[in-house]
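Progress note, project year one: complex with 3-methyl-2-oxobutanoic acid.
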Amino acid sequence: MSVQAPVRRVTAIDIRARKGGAPIVSLTSYHAHTAAIIDRFVDFILVGDSLGMVMHGLETTVPVTLEMMILQGLAVMRGSSHALVVVDLPFGSYEESPAAAFRSAARVMKETGCGAVKMEGGVRMAETVRFLAERGIPVMGHIGLTPQSINTMGGFKVQGKNDESAAAVLADAKAIAEAGAFAMVVEGVVEPVARAVTQAVPIPTIGIGASPDCDGQILVLEDMLGLSPRVPKFVKRYGSLAGLIEEAVSSYADEVRARTFPTPENVYKVKN
Ligand code: KIV
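Model obtained:
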């Protein structure tokens, strides 16, 4: 009898230990099938609340619910076996108090089996990060451009452009690192400030629209695959899937209309 050793998933502790080492690779996924494809290439998969915009066509991430995150988090856990899975806490599920955040995060971890949660905010969320980290919940922070705050930020605005904003980004990064976050996403921050943040904190920074000097990088999968109609400047398209899908669907539609699909190979015959 041969017994295969189970595949050990990457943990939040493994990611924390990668500070200053080989770059950490990450992508978003919201589905079992894309999670299965990306699993062996990435260190962690983020079930981002960007799913509201990417999957559901919402204008912002604000309407995303805890139930949506749990459903897709579960799908990604089913599809993957190697990468750490981090699930976003959606707007309204954690800001009110550390206790509310703990309840939401514990639900996400129990109901999906994921290895960590992510929450937006710096200085203002530090107490909550500490509360969760001290109670067994690995927390990834998210600073700089925090899309859940779009209504108070006045849009998707790049951060750190002047001295005051740069100091605020740096203070946010230091506050959540000190509070016990194991890593942080640095989004939409001017390059020198993102680099300074990376040098200033003892935990890995994961850049998106930030700096090549961050300890890792993340992109939204559909953006880098060329499936999203509009993408920000920081996205590099590594594929053109929208065109491939159009081609395939157009061939299928032509063949159905011409009755050339299904062919004899695609139908079940009666055996004599
Ligand atoms: O929700 C998301 O996909 C994110 C990434 C853009 C970092 O937070």
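The mean pLDDT is 96.
The chain has one domain: 12-241.
No further modelling is planned for this target in the current period.
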